[in-house]
Amino acid sequence: MNQATLEKMKHLKLYGMHRAFSTTMETGSISYTNDELIAYLIESEYDDRESRKVERLITSARFRYRAFMEEITASSSRNIDKNTIGRLSSCDFISQKQNILITGSTGVGKSFIATAIGYKACTMGYKVMYFSINKLFSKLKMAKADGSYLKEIDRIEKQDLIILDDFGLQSLDNLKRQDFMEIIEDRHGKRSTIIASQLPVSVWHEVIAEQTIADAILDRMVHNSLRIDLKGESMRRKKADQKISSE
């Protein structure tokens, strides 16, 4: 009878419940009351579904690498403290529809922090997408050519959080400005966006390269945003030096 029950669980895709009940049978853990056993099986199924949901969200986000909030180094020399990390880790900014602007020189950890926030958001059930911004513009250009542009823009708009990395490596031409404006306009006051850039916010006007559109974009992005201006030496160089010294 137990085997038939296990087969039905699998057929119904109750994988967490199946695993828990199977383990209970194998280990002979029959000390549960009926209520306790039901609660245990339901809790196992719930945990399994939540875990699979998080993995789906992480896969859909298409991060370049794994990063976790616990790995972020807080120090005054980097201009980021534990309180800021804790605030970001709570992901309250998403429910408050705030943006985050992360700036700093090459290698100081902008992308890592942005990705770590994205990972944390996924574990809390938020829909996230990560983009290298120049690759995003290329993708949107191809989408216009094959007729899928509106579908792609709609998908971006529906994400609880998008991460736009490497902003400012190239000035925006008219096509990119229009795409960028549409993304920011669609999300303004409704969803959160993280932008990571080597350039300080004060020169973003020059990157956007058109005064009126730049004013409109920055008014929507900078207002009600959390700003992190990272300082210090390159974390990549520091890790490389530590690796060499330990060899």
Automatic annotation (TrEMBL):
Protein family (similarity comment): Belongs to the IS21/IS1162 putative ATP-binding protein family.
Organism: Chryseobacterium camelliae
CDD domains reported for this sequence: AAA (cd00009)
Protein name: IS21-like element helper ATPase IstB
Ranges where the AAA+ ATPase domain occurs: 96-229
InterPro entries on file: AAA+_ATPase, DNAC/IstB-like, IstB, IstB_ATP-bd, P-loop_NTPase
Claim: Lyase is one of the keywords in the record: no
SMART domains registered for this protein in UniProt: AAA (SM00382)
Record keywords: ATP-binding, Nucleotide-binding
Residue ranges that the Swiss-Prot or TrEMBL entry lists as coiled coil: none
Gene that this polypeptide is encoded by: istB
Domain of life: Bacteria
PANTHER family, per database record: ATP-BINDING PROTEIN RV3427C IN INSERTION SEQUENCE-RELATED (PTHR30050:SF4), CHROMOSOMAL REPLICATION INITIATOR PROTEIN DNAA (PTHR30050)
